[in-house]
Amino acid sequence: MTTLRQVAAISALNLRSIPQRLGPSLVVVIGIAGVVGVLVSVLTMAGSLTETVISTGDENRAIVLRNGSNYEMASLLDTVAVQTIMDAPGVARTADGDPAASSDFIVPINLTRKEDGALAALVVRGISPQSFEVRPEIRLVAGRMFTPGLREVVVGRNAQLQIAGVELGDRVALRDSEWAVVGVYQSGDAAESGMLTDVTTLLSTYQRTLVNSVTVLLETPDSFEELKVALTTNPTLSVDVLREPEYFEQQSERIAQLMFFVTYVVTTIMAVGAFFAALNTMYSAVSTRSVEIATLRALGFGATGVVASVLTEVLLLAVIGGMLGATVAWLLFSGNVISLGGTLGSIVTELRVTPVLVGTGIAWACTVGLLGGLPPAIRAARLPVATALRAV
Fold this sequence. Notes:
By secondary structure, the chain is an alpha+beta fold. It has 12 helices and 12 strands.
């Protein structure tokens, strides 16, 4: 009998006996399902948020921050610096001849989520009048645009879906005043998760004179290097110049690194528990079937067949657990819309459980199963035939 046929015969015998060990087998399946469920769920959240943030950038735009600032709210630029940036070579012009640039001032506020009443971070972005030429993807879908000089805001569609008290006609508290919600906009990216208003009015309300960033529309995508050289070599400025996709990619990496770290720490701890469950279950299975294994060895079945049969059983349980965990994650999370606060404010995104994430979860399940099943499999192969048969 060939080794392959031996493996198939013993594996089939093992699998038929699983119902007799249903309890311990379920412990393995449920333990691994928990590991995979958490892994797939958090990776789905991290991946969806990252994709939403990255999609915000446009190759034809550049963002200018104070040198050394990792994100907009950590940056401050005075009026002289702003004017110098807007007049720099490589910046496109509007039909009126003005620089196609927006100096932005950002204010984080906390509002109540509709779903659970908890507080959620939201960004109110003060923008220049030319901002809509710089960001043509922003389009009004309800109400009207805010009027410069008045305490009015327009709210992103995603934010309106998630946050209470931001419907048309509602009033939002900013500093010691109330601002009217007069419109709703869509942009198809992370910017849709906040509010927009006039930058001068917002600065006046918060008694500030410095903005956080300047976003410019480039004459052509190739104009970026010309703009960057002009600004970074100007002795009166101390700024960093980034293409928008580069800036948002950096922000998404910070989100992803944090969530991936938490994910793998939590799932590794859970995986250790699942590993010991698999280890105990397979040791128990080998112990209760020691006579059977010894008899097979006495009949001429090799050690390879015994090892493979034990590993086949535990890997089958692992795959079932992995598929169960991935299915639960898909049912609970795929298609849901969530919001998460961060340096960009509250980012709203739709969760998507992809085949790649399911495959990652099942790979983890097989790894845990393999590590948990290997020691008992080796023990079974080394089981002395004569010693086991004396127990008959």
